[in-house]
Amino acid sequence: MYGFFECSKCKAKWESAKVYSKNKAKTLYYGQECKSCKIMCQPYRVEETMCSLCGEVARTCGCDKTRHTDPNKPHRSDLCEKCRSGNRCQ
Length: 90
What we know:
With 90 residues, the protein is mainly β. The chain has one domain (1-90). Helices cover 4% and strands 20% of the residues. It has 1 helix and 5 strands, in the order βββββα. It has one helix at 81-84; strands spanning 2-6, 13-16, 32-33, 40-41, 43-47. The strands form 2 sheets. The protein has a 3-stranded antiparallel sheet, with no helix packed on it. The longest helix has 4 residues, at 81-84. The protein is globular and about 40 Å long. Residues 1-86 form the 3CxxC-type domain. It comes from Dreissena polymorpha (Zebra mussel). GO terms for molecular function: mRNA binding; zinc ion binding. Keywords: Cytoplasm, Developmental protein, Differentiation, Metal-binding, Oogenesis, RNA-binding, Zinc, Zinc-finger.
């Protein structure tokens, strides 16, 4: 899932391709910590990640999954609520 975040304190905005649902209904999501304020933020919008090759939903398409991530932008597990809970994303 792809999420859009905004810090309620400093108003910093960021996006993440590593957003995970806490429940099957996809109404609760793991948050990410703001790098500046160190407070946990929830995504204000979440959408499916689409495959850049075939245009289908990335988690179910048959394309090479390595093309859906940017190797130059590693996952910040220190800021990730899911990773910190012991359920690592990667």
